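ok so heres the complex, two chains, lmk if somethin looks off
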Amino acid sequence: EAGVVQSPRYKIIEKKQPVAFWCNPISGHNTLYWYRQNLGQGPELLIRYENEEAVDDSQLPKDRFSAERLKGVDSTLKIQPAELGDSAVYLCASSRTGGVTEAFFGQGTRLTVV
Amino acid sequence: GQQLNQSPQSMFIQEGEDVSMNCTSSSIFNTWLWYKQEPGEGPVLLIALYKAGELTSNGRLTAQFGITRKDSFLNISASIPSDVGIYFCAGQSNSGNTPLVFGKGTRLSVIA
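and the predicted structre for the whole thing:
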């Protein structure tokens, strides 16, 4: 069974530029999560999807961050414009349903904003 | 918001030693998970706990769900160099309705 796939693995951009991350969850997993992990910290949830519906986006900075999960499978997370403080690892995870807690993570995208 | 306190923050041990780390919360959780993260990788699920008092093993790893439902610990027996990494606890208060909350991790170094 293929795991959660994320791309790109690394991204370096200048501040004020846009950036997008892509995630393909494990087949059959209806729940998809985007987490942000700052250096030396644990992952923090940005948004959670149940199929194509965003059911928890309370921690997503909506002035510059947006996400979508069209067709309830893969998902993209966008930042526009990026700020220096957005430098972090962006992790995507998936689980079977919202009632099943065991989330499986992708390798993450390391974003550096210069 | 909910916070998890993990301790210790880091530890250095000799190969072959046993390791113990724990996680505490100010609120009750229904689920505890333990993950391991290696450099440049995403967290990998090690053990999932769903019942207070539950003791679960995965090879040399053993984790317990505290009776008070506010804590959990992870033990690693007979450590080996490949155990190096950051171990995160994560908890969920209401299955399916609340997000996983992660601790800040315990960084484990194993000296051969």
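quick notes: The mean pLDDT of chain B is 93. thats all i got rn
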